[in-house]
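Run: sequence + NAP -> complex structure.
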Amino acid sequence: MTITSFNPATDAVLAEYDAHDGAAIEQRLERAAGAQRAWARTPMAERMALLRRVAQTLREQKATLAPLATLEMGKPLAESAGEVEKCAWNFDVYADAAPGMLQDQIVPSSATDSRMVYDPLGIVLAVMPWNYPFWQVMRAAAPVLAGGNGMVLKHASNVPQCALALEDVFTKAGAPAGLFTTLLVGSGEVKRLIEDRRISAVTFTGSTPAGRSIASQAGQALKKQVLELGGSDPFIVLSDADIEAAAAVAVKARFQNTGQSCIAAKRFIVEHAVADRFVEAFVDGARQLVVGDPMADGNTQGAMAKRNLRDELHAQVEASVQQGAKLLLGGKPVAGPGAFYEPTVLDHVTHDMTAAREETFGPAAAILRVADAAEAVRVANGTPFGLGAALWTADLDRARQITRQIDAGAVFVNGMVASDPRLPFGGTKESGYGRELGVLGLHEFTNIKTVWTGPARA
Ligand code: NAP
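>> structure
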């Protein structure tokens, strides 16, 4: 099997790799197992020192790493550079916080001493998507490694250079050989990897259908799993909100990463009273986006990662227009090479239209107009997803009540949903389960062991 690196902005093939065969996989898993066993016994201070060196290496390598992400998945270079910085920040945050998070927790009971201790689980298999080819992996890797585990990465098949570059970052940072291992394999290998005795747990980020499949395989193998899946995040704007600020943030929330983010705002749910004002400011903002070569300075929207994904997005836009949505901006693929798509805004979308029912993974926004906050919440909750949500209002007391009514893993009030290493991240409903980042992200891949001790002599 060949794994092909191609540039979605030019359609050029960048490199081709033979996928790892059975013998190479075996050799890499064996090496990973040895490295993890030693790592689990490595003193905490040494583990944290490696995390810091990884952060430093990422920063040193930023000028090499960032173009790789842009070349392989089409996002503007400045966004790729920001992504590398964020990975480094994540490693620094865990290097500071993990020792405290992993300290024994004394729990009073009838014992002389009873406590929870956090042991490593073993090797975590990471099956990852291409949309943030560094961040998705490193978001998971920092807490996994801090906890004394190893990581084996099966990255998306369209970002092999990024996958190999990440392994190289760990080598350059002085990680034990095999502690972080990239396998160049197709998705057909995942089941066998999950079943392998050397794999203890799985972290998956990607689409809901693939998540279902991995969940059933991991369930069958009785291995712990964390699933970060798709989303159709609502961005609710109530009539007392700062409309201009909301619209400006909304443009970023929808179009950054060329709209290919799980936590991108996808459905803008706006109270009638302010809808015209919001829509005008939002469309004005979207019009300012400059679509073009993601390697060139000044372009703020790059190519989508694959042509088939652009075709799917276009079909969703066309279906929604046929169903009665009003096209205010864009609505077409950009002619010429590359998987470029015009920044697109659909108004008067209703909850039963394609753009509201399905995840739109690209630069197309759906605006849904509602009568009041109660209808906004009903519409927001009216999808199978539950990843993030944004709520804009001047009334923070009311906001606190509304946040509790929204089915989502996170609600951001007067801001846009974003991941932050210090805060837990994850979804509910068909957006997945388990948490990454924060203290919960670290504890997910530990064996939380209860140690009960009675008196030394009766
Ligand atoms: P995807 O098609 O599900 O692929 C993700 C990873 O899973 C890739 O490594 C892929 O390998 C592998 N894969 C695909 N089908 C599989 C299967 N049946 N069994 C085992 N592995 C399988 O998703 P994507 O297109 O890369 O990413 C977009 C999706 O990810 C969107 O739905 C988005 O919302 C979601 N996402 C979620 C989060 C989150 O944190 N919740 C973050 C980012 C993205 P191949 O490339 O070799 O097929």
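>> summary
Residues 127-131, 136, 154-157, 186-187, 190, 205-207, 210, 213-214, 228-231, 262, 359, 361, 387, 427, 432 surround NAP (CB under 6 Å). The chain has a mean pLDDT of 98.
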